[in-house]
Amino acid sequence: MKQDGKWSGFRKLVLVDRIKECEDITSFYFKAEDGGKLVKHEAGQYLPFKIVTEEAAYKDVLRTYSLSIIPNDELYRISVKKIPGGLISTYLHERLQIGDCIEAMIPMGLFTLKEESAEAPITLISGGIGITPLLSMLYQAADTRKSVHFIQAVQNSKLHPFKTDIHMIAELKGFRNTVFYSNPLAEDEKGRDYDEIGFVTKEWLSTEANLESTFYLCGPPVFMKALEESLLGLGVSKDRIYYELFSQ
Question: FAD-binding FR-type domain location, by residue (predicted)?
Fold first, then answer.
């Protein structure tokens, strides 16, 4: 292993904490089992890994989950939605305990913030669990950007991860934060829990989004397709739209 934390192949990471973010999403925090430094990932990258087990169903099954933490060389966090019938997501939620290990490769991926001036506006739009790479971007942007609009689309308050984190960053940095609930609960209150009912539409974007932004999008395929078509239809050039698809 090199001094900068880089390694080749797989390296054991040990689970040091797990936190439930909402009804179906839990965050898992890992450090290097050998106590060394990690590779400082770029915001938006993902972590390829496999479960450490002799059970045939899981052995050598590789999965990739976006890192949802500010880039650093000490601690990784992945935030995982439990998918009904999902092999690895179910294992993580139900069986992986503090002290257990995974075997991980170095962070990878090209869905990262592009180099621009601090004044260049960016808009981050997430759907559901697609928030994870964009959250890492938001943490980084808090130190490097002056104009950020974070748009988060979820169903309701029970399925609303990282609400406090995003609100605090927006308040501290003066960023704009807009929350859409597609199916609010009876107890959900507009203006407190969310800002808009329904979906992020072309009409809403035309009046509420800064169309001079660079846009970063992440969510389910249908969500992404609709957003891209809307932005292109509003005159946003394709080279200012970056996205990563998250299947459900």
Answer: 8-114
